[in-house]
Write a structure and sequence with these properties.
Blueprint: H1 5-15, E1 19-24, E2 31-37, E3 43-44, H2 49-57, E4 61-63, E5 69-71, H3 73-78
Antiparallel strand pairs: 1-2, 2-3, 4-5
Length: about 90
């Protein structure tokens, strides 16, 4: 699967235990804002709304019961190995 550099970077963070917190527009199911955090609590600047939507559309990330978005099984299979998480 072809993934952009920023999509790969976000997936690596999620594969290492990170998460994407989202906020919804009040009264709707539409997502208005997202923040991607590493497992150490740092915020990742590469995670934009466009990258988030692409990853969600490709089903590489998912949310359970309204919780934060995490990497899915398909996302783990799609992410390329890097020296820091081999």
């Amino acid at each position: 699967m072809n993934l952009s550099r920023s999509e790969q970077r976000v997936l690596h963070v999620l594969a290492q235990g990170g998460l994407i917190r989202h906020q919804r527009v009040p009264g709707t199911t539409r997502i208005s804002d997202i923040d991607c955090f590493t497992r150490d609590g740092y915020r990742l600047g590469d995670c934009t709304m466009q990258v988030f939507e692409k990853l969600r559309r490709k089903r590489l990330i998912r949310s359970e019961a309204g919780g934060p978005y995490r990497i899915s099984r398909q996302g783990r299979e799609a992410v390329r190995p890097q020296p820091d998480n081999r």
